[in-house]
């Protein structure tokens, strides 16, 4: 397998984390999105949507981080067997893509990587409360549950962990979320856990 990725991206980290926990060896190909390397004609042949991560499996390309997690996790301890629980995992993964990542990940990218916070100040002001709304939903769930589905660590947790644990890099305050912080520590204690730097 081969992972086309930009190392600081949480979407790419999700896949590295699961690959490590599954003990799967793979090759990394670094795509510098700050230099728009994901928009070159060569890369657009790999992903017409011009974005990383892309997981290459036996010569076939799989864009979308959560699709890659689903592909890798099926039949393993990271994805439940029960049909309803499977759908709940997808529920949280769609929540992450629609209600969490566009606010928490995008603000982090502008603030910490593109250094365009000033240029995007209006958008940051608009998106910040929406990011906090997602964190509120997570905090409420985690006040009664150890993990997102069935009280067991799964790809729902990997998906949500990726950008939540680095949300402060974009200016979000996690100190007001005690249950979220305890869940972050539980995720970090899972066997085979690696940090986003790795
Ligand atoms: N929904 C996609 C989002 C992919 C995405 O937005 N990737 C960003 C980096 S995290 C990217 O490639 N940006 C470069 C660009 O848009 O040119 C996923 O989960 O993989």
Shape: globular
Average residue-wise pLDDT: 97
Bound molecules: glutathione
The number of distinct structural domains comes to 2
CATH architectural grouping of the largest domain: Up-down Bundle
Terminus-to-terminus distance: 18 Å
Under CATH at level 1, the class of the largest domain stands as: Mainly Alpha
Detail the poorly predicted runs: none
User: SSE order in H/E notation?
Assistant: EHEHEEHHHHH
Description:
Strand 1, helix 1 (10-22) and strand 2 form a beta-alpha-beta unit. The mean pLDDT is 97. It is built from seven helices and four strands. The radius of gyration is 16 Å and the shape is globular. Helix 1 (10-22) packs parallel to helix 3. It has helices spanning 10-22, 41-46, 65-73, 83-113, 121-142, 155-164, 178-188, and strands at residues 2-5, 27-30, 54-57, 60-63. A four-stranded mixed β-sheet has the order 2-1-3-4, with helices on one face. The protein is 52% helix and 8% strand. It is of the alpha+beta class. It folds into two domains: 2-73, Glutaredoxin (3-Layer(aba) Sandwich), CATH 3.40.30.10; 83-188, Glutathione S-transferase Yfyf (Class Pi), Chain A, domain 2. Bound molecules: glutathione (GSH). Glutathione (GSH) is lined by residues 6, 9, 11, 33, 38-39, 50-53, 64-66, 97.
């Amino acid at each position: 397998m081969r992972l086309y990725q930009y190392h600081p991206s949480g979407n790419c980290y999700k896949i590295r984390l699961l690959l490590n926990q599954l003990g799967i060896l793979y090759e990394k190909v670094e795509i510098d999105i700050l230099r728009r390397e994901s928009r070159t004609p060569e890369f657009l042949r790999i992903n017409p949507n011009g974005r990383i991560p892309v997981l290459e499996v036996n010569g076939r390309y799989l864009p979308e981080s959560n699709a890659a997690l689903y592909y890798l996790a099926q039949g393993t301890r990271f994805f439940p067997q029960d049909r309803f629980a499977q759908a709940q995992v997808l529920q949280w993964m769609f929540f992450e893509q629609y209600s969490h990542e566009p606010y928490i990940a995008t603000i982090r990218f502008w603030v910490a990587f593109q250094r365009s916070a000033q240029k995007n100040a209006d958008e940051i002001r608009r998106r910040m409360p929406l990011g906090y709304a997602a964190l509120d939903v997570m905090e409420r769930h985690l006040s009664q549950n150890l993990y997102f589905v069935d009280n067991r660590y799964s790809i729902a947790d990997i998906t949500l962990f990726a950008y939540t644990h680095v949300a402060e890099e974009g200016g979000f305050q996690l100190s007001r979320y005690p249950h979220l912080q305890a869940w972050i520590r539980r995720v970090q204690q899972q066997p085979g856990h690696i940090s986003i730097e790795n």
